[in-house]
């Protein structure tokens, strides 16, 4: 299956706000999109931090998960019911206090499954702080 | 390494509130502990839900992660700097709206790494909604 | 979806030998089956060992993968085209030289995906040497 | 920790043959190395195939595992006891009959853990057939 974008960033951002109102809590924002790739920023806030100022694991998971969701939607369209079936995340180094950026790459876009890899970097020093792979199940389309 | 509890539930709950104040947001509560096992409940609130009433992936990740953290601490003591290095989660079925319960089992407790499996069930119908495995890195002890 | 066996051990063993002739190389044998569970033994041979006598990672992967395949087939019938889409394995401790046994449990049996957990133990001392989770994609059935 | 090569391809190939004589069974060969990266080829043989001519899952796992092992050794030296603790693999598409190539990238090289990502491609059409992440535990060094 070819991996061509079927939505643009503005439309996808708008759709995200509609179906996941709580995404505002994370300050998710689409920074760039191209065929097979998406870059998603997250504005880290105090309640995303662990003691010592490090971003919490669940916060990085949420960023990886939303980046995976957005890259899938960007290539299949507004299919709200696409669901994560598997997410594997390696935490590599503690991020500096500050915002995070996720770069997701689509590795497979099948009729039933999409698989992507996600790199999470610190906006402060560009360090690779986590790496995830995620599988989404795509509901049957008419 | 033998897998014997070194803390009791009251002490561990108290410690959790001290080091992760935000854990109150999830209503985590230790329901049972024994050698190699822990049961952790989560009081699901509106902002943990996805449209349609299903608990969000990041919320289930947070429960798996905290259950893993607690089972490790219960067996090694108050080592706040133990950190998750890997977490793999399979989402199996959408949970009914309602609370969740995680049962974590310690599969390995080494000097440097601890590995556990976590089953997440719905409190409503006891359905297995997610399964995770997590690895914690244990800092050197004096 | 209910998780009831649709094949018995003899029939499944016969089918395994037909579709995976190389499985004899591993000496796979079905030791027990019940709804949602299967126990598969492996006769470890010299070429499965690493220097020092420990069973190699790829050998344990092969055992986990075949146990997952067999538990899926046992519940859906002879669908040779079921394929592994994801396998996550944690190596917990080096096994004693000797045979291995895998116990697989079906955690989800959907129309399109099956997910199972696999524990691998040493036949020598029953130690838990590895734990895996596997996802199988099930082809559409007529 | 900086990620600089401490061995060259010839020396590493020689060491591989010494410690893993069975690696000849897979025809592993180091095609390229640079700081943080390694490319490993595998000569697929008949007994690596599934019915229909597709390379088996355990064979792809073995390639991912050896690529991870080699990239770690290339950066830490001859530490035979480095062991895989976790390997997560996504099978993306069935490879064409033919050889495979793995490209491994070192994502973290810590004192105790190394984490890498591995892409496996078909030598026939360069299709991405599998993606893995692996964690190695590094024994204490004097």
Describe this structure in a few short sentences.
The structure is a homotetramer of 142-residue chains. Chain A has helices at residues 9-19, 57-76; strands spanning 29-34, 37-42, 83-91, 100-109, 113-122, 128-137.
Structural commentary:
The structure is a homotetramer of 142-residue chains. By secondary structure, chain A is an alpha+beta fold. Chain A has a single domain (9-137), classed as Thiol Ester Dehydrase, Chain A (Roll), CATH 3.10.129. Chain A has helices at 9-19, 57-76, and strands at 29-34, 37-42, 83-91, 100-109, 113-122, 128-137. In chain A, strands 1-2-4-5-6-3 form a 6-stranded antiparallel sheet, with helices on one face. In chain A, strand 1 and strand 2 form a beta hairpin. Chain A starts with 8 loop residues before the first helix and ends in a 5-residue tail after the last strand. Chains in contact: A-B, A-C, A-D, B-C, B-D, C-D.
């Amino acid at each position: 299956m070819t991996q061509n974008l079927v939505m643009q960033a503005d439309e996808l951002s708008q759709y995200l706000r509609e179906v996941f109102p709580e995404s505002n809590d994370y300050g998710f924002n689409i920074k760039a999109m191209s065929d097979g790739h998406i870059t998603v920023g997250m504005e880290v806030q105090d309640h995303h931090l662990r003691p010592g100022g490090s971003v919490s694991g669940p916060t990085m998971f949420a960023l990886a998960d939303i980046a995976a969701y957005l890259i899938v939607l960007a290539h299949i369209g507004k299919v709200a019911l696409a669901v994560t079936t598997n997410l594997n995340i390696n935490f590599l180094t503690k991020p500096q206090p500050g915002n995070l950026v996720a770069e997701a790459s689509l590795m497979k876009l099948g009729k039933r499954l999409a698989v992507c890899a996600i790199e999470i970097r610190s906006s402060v020093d560009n360090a690779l702080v986590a790496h995830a792979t995620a599988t989404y199940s795509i509901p049957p389309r008419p």
